[in-house]
Amino acid sequence: MTAPESEAARSLLSASAVRTRAHAMLDLALQGRLPGLAVDLSRLDAAASLVIETMKAAYPDLEVPFHSRWRHFAAGGYDRWGMIADARGWTDPVEAARAAADMAIVSVLLDAGSGPGWRFLEPATGEVFTRSEGLAVASFAMIVSGLLSGEPLDPVRVDAEALEDLDEEALAEAFQVRSDNPLAGLAGRLELMQALGTVVAEREDIFALADAPRPGGIVDALIARAEGGRLPAARILETVLEALGPIWPSRLELGGVALGDTWRHPALVTQDATTGLVPLHKLSQWLSYSLIEPLMLAGLDVTDLDGLTGLAEYRNGGLFIDTGVIRLTDPADLQREHGVDEPLIVGWRSLTVALLDRVAEVVRARLGRDAESLPLASVLEGGTWAAGRRIAASLRPGGGPPLKIVSDGTVF
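RE: above sequence
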């Protein structure tokens, strides 16, 4: 372990590093130097048209909320959080924010792709939900049940010890997993929850400043890192990566620093110890977006939303493949299964981040908006994620992604 290596590693733990390297990867692809992938920017207008059409259908007034787990908590049109908040009756807004952050952190970390066959029947409504909405509703119901609380009189909280003690049987029951209702990556999700509990218990300086160790304790740490009640969104990500980096399994380290959702790609060459490393931080950024509303509950003003990047996941990435912006140079790759660490997948995900910036510029120009009135977080929500799902449903039975990914439940 050397100090220069550690310093170089920490430079990858930011949204700016994700954006810078994603655009470097896009430059390589435009030069024909990214094996397996080609980019056709002439198709960007077609992708933008689909995004705008999808956005206007969902939000005719173009008042688009930003992309976060809270949209999924309202699946089916139910204000689940509002009902729980009314019943719980928090008098301290920061305590409500901690509970909301508990909810967001656990749910986001359980939000890797469910697989095509899984579904969740919500007992409270009798409705069936699948994919991201299903995972959100299931995790919400799990937390409200008190399964992860260490306080019998306060079920709507998540405690470190309860996370560490969670077992596969309890998690499977909460998500209604059976032989005829399989959930992809169940074991990986359990390991992530247990690792979350361990890290939260160990990092009292972040997660236990005003309460017993709990994921939502990060609210207090972020309040302390704000200046004059204002907190740049990128600082949320930096705190998340600093605190939660050790939870990710079997990932790269450099200079003793865990790099999280960072992968190797031989085409990206730099002049330091980080050569070949491509940071993406998808779930961590998804989590950062999802912490904005809890922080607003606590009274913070979260600024510079475009300091975060777009999300390198299969709905956004699928949009660009399905509209022809990204093309696989070997069509057979569409039929093969791919590991998340393969250069083809790393390249696809990184291109997705850069192209989300590009398509956001086109969407704003055509709608007469700017980054302040239509931040990237709203373009994602309105938006690229929904358009990616929409075009996938029109092209493939079941609406799955264009590439077949072997998931361990901790990336997508």
